[in-house]
Specification:
mainly alpha
């Protein structure tokens, strides 16, 4: 977008934000531009001067902030099912099975997983999960993590397909320790 078009749009936003009527708006333009009353007739320096005048009158250009990813809250209290979900999610992120460890990404996953179970409308927040839905999400995360660990173990993981999540995790972590040399 050309700079002049951007400034003209900002002037119109300023007019609305400052609740100026048309006559007041045109009078302010004329004051900075040798009598020109249309923003389309103003030169680039005149548009900048008009915008500066509107800033003096209280106009604040608002820029939409980038979305902030929420991180998991601290779980210093007695662990519950939601703490287990977060722990599984963070474990999967540490092992690079998932790319985004944020609470926002976790809530997105929870909403997808609970949508089918709840007739198309998923539960949007981890903290809103009730025990049966939380247990369902825990099981889906365990199955996902188990698949990823077996995949990471390669040939050594082939005989673990019928083992429990905990057995696979134990073998996986032992293998990780051997690989690191601990």
């Amino acid at each position: 977008m050309k700079e002049t078009q951007r400034l003209i749009r900002l002037l119109h936003v300023a007019k609305t934000q400052l609740q100026m009527d048309d006559a007041c708006y045109r009078a302010n333009l004329a004051a900075v531009s040798d009598g020109k009353t249309s923003s389309k007739d103003l030169t680039l320096p005149q548009l900048e001067a008009a915008l500066a005048r509107f800033h003096q009158l209280g106009f604040k250009a608002w820029v939409k902030p980038a979305p902030v990813k929420r991180m998991s809250p601290s779980t210093k209290t007695q662990p519950d099912a939601r703490s287990v979900i977060r722990a599984l999610w963070l474990f999967m992120a540490e092992q690079r099975f998932i790319r985004d460890s944020s609470e926002t990404a976790l809530n997105s996953y929870i909403k997808r997983m609970t949508a089918q179970k709840n007739g198309g409308e998923g539960i949007a927040e981890c903290t809103w999960l009730r025990d049966d839905d939380a247990a369902y999400v825990i099981n889906t995360l365990k199955l996902w993590a188990k698949r990823e660990m077996i995949k990471a173990l390669g040939k050594a993981g082939d005989n673990l397909r019928h083992q429990s999540y905990h057995q696979v995790r134990k073998t996986y972590l032992q293998q990780q320790e051997v690989a690191v040399g601990v």
